[in-house]
Structure formats: structure tokens, C-alpha cells
Write a structure and sequence with these properties.
With 341 residues, the chain is α/β, with parallel strands linked by helices. Helices cover 26% and strands 25% of the residues. The strands form five sheets. The protein has an eight-stranded mixed sheet with strand order 4-1-5-7-8-9-12-13, with helices on both faces. Strands 15-16-17-18 form a four-stranded parallel sheet, with helices on both faces. Strand 7, helix 4 and strand 8 form a beta-alpha-beta unit. Helix 2 crosses helix 3. The longest helix is centred in the N-terminal third of the chain and has 14 residues. It starts with 6 loop residues before the first strand and ends in a 17-residue tail after the last helix. The mean pLDDT is 91.
Length: 341
């Protein structure tokens, strides 16, 4: 166990971990100071201060709050050795992905955690998760944005909520866990190498990103409105990716009419990613239209990454591949290099 002279800032946002029972169901209502009182033994591991950014159900999480979290970490960065963000589980993977792009190359850990049951309940997972997160954040070898949940440490761009009620709610998609916590000890599976680039904070995001989930035989009468309004369209397709005949002609025509709209092919399948070159329904339209691909990225990371890119860079058809396929916080393992174009 490391010395307890490490300083950690606990930032709370609401979520199940901070919820109490109301007449209409669970609702966030426990303050950051009150949450910390449920784990008094944490003084043996770190000195913890608290800060409450908001108190919302994570269903109501939004880019505006992501920017508030970034600003809070940035303002306090030199004062603390690590940061823990208590967050609702339903959108935690989105926030972890967003912060991975908005806080890059951090030599200090920014750890998200939460629980499936409120921390005030006797059978909660909240106390263990919060303890583990603070212990990990206080470890001098920890760095970058990650999720600590059910004893597992998951890179911020690789996490996905895969169970709605069980304590092992999160998985690391097509990438190993960074570490595991057991009995207050951190067991690392991957070495934390120093970042080659300097720390960078970003607070701007482009929210004009649309997710289009395909269903068999679908038609989209409002497709032109989507192309004209949104700066990026993410197509969540079947399998390795393709556009069905029912909308492919419209896609061709609208791509020509709105060439500045960034289009990204993703997949509804959780594991192994996209590859539009496999089938004619994908290969043909990829040749004729400028599609980016998610490859092995999670959907949460695809959404957060394009929001970040469009909010901070001049993204064009010419430079979009170089920008989108840059590897950040383990978001791409194989990526474009996996596929023979």
C-alpha cells in the first residue's frame, strides 16, 4: 500500500451512487461530502477533498457538463495527484470517452466510477467502487482517463456498459483491462509508459453529431434534413458495415450535395469492429462516398471523438482520415491498418 500522503480530488455529478429514494424512484440527492463519509477508511490511502459539479441522473449527462468536468480538473490539476469522478453508470462510458479526448496525455489519473445501487444501501457496490477508484487515483503509477468498476480498470475509450443491473456492469471491448484492484492493491496488466506529448485540455465540442441506427428495410424521408443540419452522421450498421438498398441511392445523392458532412460507418456489433471492404453493400458505397470507419473503436468513442475533432479542428474530407485515425488513449488497436483498401 502506498503512503497516504497522496492528494485526490473527488468530483461528484450525481448518479445512482449519490441517489436516495423519492416517491417517483431513485433520484440524486447525496452531496459529495456525504458520499465520502461512507468510506471513512480511505484516510489510510489518501487525503481526499471533494467538489460537486452537478447532481443529475446520468441520463441527463451532456457535453456542457463534460466541459465543466474538464474545467474543474484543469483548475485543480496542480493541486492534486489524482482525480475521481463519481458518475451515473448509464452514460459513464460516454463521459469516459469524451474526457479521453478532452484531457490528453495526463500524467495524473482521471478516474470515473459509480455504482449499480446507492451508496447508502447496505448491499451497495458503491463503497467498494469508490474505495478502489480513490486507491487507483492515489497510486503514483496511474495516469490518463479510465473507469474503475467492480475491481477492474478500463481505458476510457474502451469501456461499455454491458449489464443493466449486475455489479460487473462494464467490460473492456476488444482490449485488456489495464489493471485490477484487490484488497487495496493495484495489480497492473499493462505498463503505464510516460506520454511523449504534453498535457492538453480541450473544452470545445461540436454537438451537431447524429447517430443513425439501421433496421432492416428502413427508409428515411428526413434524410436530407439530417445531412443539411448535422456536421457528422454516424451510421450504426449491421455486422462489418454497409448501406441497404432502401437508402443507398439517397446516400449517394446527398453525399454529392453535402460533401462537407462527415460520414462514419460504425457497427451494432459490440466486438471485432467494422470492415466495409468485405461485402459489396459496404465496399461500393465506401468507394463512391467518403466514409470513415469505426474499425475497432467503441461507439461511445466514435461519437466523442468526432465531437471533439469538429469542435477543435477544421475537419475536411482531405484531412479527416489523418485526424480521425490518430490513436488516443487506446481508442484504436488495429484501425485502418488492419484492412487492405
Amino acid at each position: 500500500m502506498e503512503s497516504n500522503n497522496r492528494n485526490v480530488l473527488l468530483i461528484t455529478t450525481g448518479g445512482t451512487i449519490a441517489s436516495t429514494q423519492s416517491e417517483n424512484g431513485l433520484k440524486p440527492g447525496i452531496s459529495s461530502d456525504e458520499i465520502l463519509k461512507f468510506i471513512p477508511e480511505i484516510v489510510n490511502f489518501a487525503k481526499v477533498d471533494t467538489c460537486q459539479v452537478c447532481s443529475v441522473d446520468s441520463t441527463n449527462m451532456k457535453p456542457e457538463i463534460w466541459a465543466m468536468l474538464v474545467a474543474t480538473v484543469k483548475e485543480n490539476y496542480d493541486k492534486y495527484d489524482g482525480f475521481v469522478i463519481a458518475h451515473g453508470t448509464d452514460t459513464m462510458a460516454y463521459t469516459a470517452a469524451a474526457l479521453s479526448y478532452m484531457i490528453q496525455n495526463s500524467g495524473k489519473p482521471i478516474v470515473l466510477t459509480g455504482s449499480q445501487k446507492p451508496i447508502e444501501l447496505e448491499n451497495t457496490d458503491g463503497r467498494t467502487n469508490l474505495m478502489d477508484a480513490i486507491i487507483y487515483a492515489a497510486d503514483s503509477k496511474s495516469q490518463g482517463v479510465c473507469i474503475v468498476f467492480d475491481g477492474k480498470v478500463i481505458a476510457g475509450t474502451r469501456a461499455k456498459k454491458v449489464r443493466s443491473k449486475s455489479y460487473n456492469a462494464f467490460d473492456s471491448i476488444d482490449f485488456p483491462f489495464l489493471a485490477q484492484l484487490q484488497g487495496g492493491q493495484v495489480m497492473r496488466y499493462l505498463p503505464m509508459l510516460p506520454y511523449e506529448k504534453p498535457l492538453r485540455f480541450y473544452e470545445k465540442l461540436d454537438e451537431k453529431v447524429y447517430l443513425m441506427k439501421l433496421i432492416p428495410g428502413m427508409r428515411i424521408p428526413a434524410l436530407e434534413e439530417i445531412f443539411s443540419y448535422y456536421d457528422a452522421i454516424i451510421v450504426e450498421s449491421f455486422g462489418v458495415g454497409g448501406i441497404p438498398d432502401t437508402i443507398s441511392e439517397d446516400f449517394y445523392e446527398l453525399h454529392k450535395k453535402y460533401p462537407e458532412t462527415i460520414i462514419i460507418m460504425a457497427t451494432q456489433v459490440s466486438h471485432e469492429g467494422s470492415d466495409m471492404t468485405v461485402y459489396e453493400v459496404g465496399q461500393k458505397i465506401k468507394k463512391d462516398c467518403h466514409f470513415l470507419e469505426s474499425y475497432d473503436m467503441t461507439l461511445e468513442s466514435v461519437i466523442a471523438k468526432i465531437m471533439w475533432l469538429l469542435g477543435n479542428f477544421e475537419v475536411t474530407q482531405e484531412n479527416s482520415e489523418d485526424l480521425f485515425y490518430e490513436h488516443i488513449n487506446y481508442d484504436l488497436v488495429f484501425g485502418k491498418n488492419r484492412v487492405t483498401e
